DNA sequence: AGCTCTGGCTTGTTTGTACAAGTTCGCCTA
DNA sequence: TAGGCGAACTTGTACAAACAAGCCAGAGCT
């Protein structure tokens, strides 16, 4: 763990613990540098981390201020349903309902950087939280990863983790589109809701560390089961609104 | 504009223009430093900006890779419906349907850091894109900003901009919760959809630069009119999933 | 009392240096 | 030919120093 991460972690703990309540000022960079025997640049890296998490705000000339005290989850927990569920104290389960290979559509070829007509793997999964069905996942995997996915246990809890352990695959980057849709008849049947009832849809494309697309997916959550949360500031905000297509 | 912002802007333009297509390698920091006659640290700040936007990814030891080429909007455009709409080439309009003062509820007191029972301003707005109603906005403003809000033109296009110009108020930080809900009868009537049809809901709390809460709001978008988009990486992702309450 | 202004404090930007750690690719060997 | 090894390259981390720019409180003035 890098020095600046240690410092960030220490400060984060202090904030979560309430040593610096919401609205309070953080010590100045100079003081922190002295306290941790680090250079000012290192301290700046640490507080930049906290600012990116939305925990503290900063303005030139004024002391940094504590804005929040909730710890936010890691990327892995965002990407992996199972890992997120576990960290929240839920028991996640899932079932593969269908899995078949087929040639990719033109739009999939673009999103996954494939040759037109190249083979992809189409998987339909139902996911549960504490036994309750909450998520219908329709995922399209690029052909090159298909064998590893097919080898997975159909009731495998965490696909992300299994793929990491079996072939060393790391999901590193992703783009997510979030909107609301009405439940289709299949969605309704699987999730146990009425047709036309609201679902929260998350469409995503995920790539490896090298920027190679792995999968794109259409995930639909039962309304009320899951909420997405974003903290943002003038400094950094990756969330954008887009016009409906 | 700082030097590192200029460099970031230049690189961003080059990426958007297609000089560095998706999957391509960016020049090394050393080369960029030479090209822009800047120190390596300055170049690093520039590319860190692009990485935060999700445009490029980086791994220790390997060249940086271009991950996307879409320009993402600024915070102002996320926060302000009107500014976002304008930047996307839409014509935004809006109407205040009701506006009244009342004592705040206990939960509002917590979210806006008010004394229990302190007065707040409750505003119901309908927003349109190119004349089509797409958004019902139920906003609760803290009492101290209420007079400025009441002075606004009921058909005012951009509340954010007007409040900045009239009282110098800057919305600096926000927390956003996104989920799907069924349209209530009022929602349905205002948006011209059937009751029970899916809406994308964004609940938010916004604060000033000093961390003082200004407003909390419940915004409901007609399904299909707007999509939220998030780019993330192992490095930074402010988006988290939360269990439904 | 209320206002202005100034000086000290704090964060923002930039440069330079050094080393650590990971990647890539060509060369050499079995 | 396949695999291993290592050198060169590239990004990550850390330190030090200097100046710019913005904030704030207290001194002084009206």
From TrEMBL, chains A, B:
Q: Cross-referenced SUPFAM superfamilies, in alphabetical order?
A: Chorismate lyase-like (SSF64288), Winged helix' DNA-binding domain (SSF46785)
One Pfam match, given by its short name, reads UTRA
Top-rank taxon of the source lineage equals Bacteria
Q: Which SMART domains match?
A: HTH_GNTR, UTRA
Q: What are the GO MF terms of this UniProt record?
A: DNA binding; DNA-binding transcription factor activity
Q: Which Gene3D superfamilies match?
A: Chorismate lyase-like, Winged helix-like DNA-binding domain superfamily/Winged helix DNA-binding domain
Q: Which UniProt keywords apply?
A: DNA-binding, Transcription, Transcription regulation
Using the record's annotation, list all stretches that form the HTH gntR-type domain: 1-69
Q: Name one GO biological process term.
A: negative regulation of DNA-templated transcription
The protein's name in its UniProt record = UTRA domain-containing protein
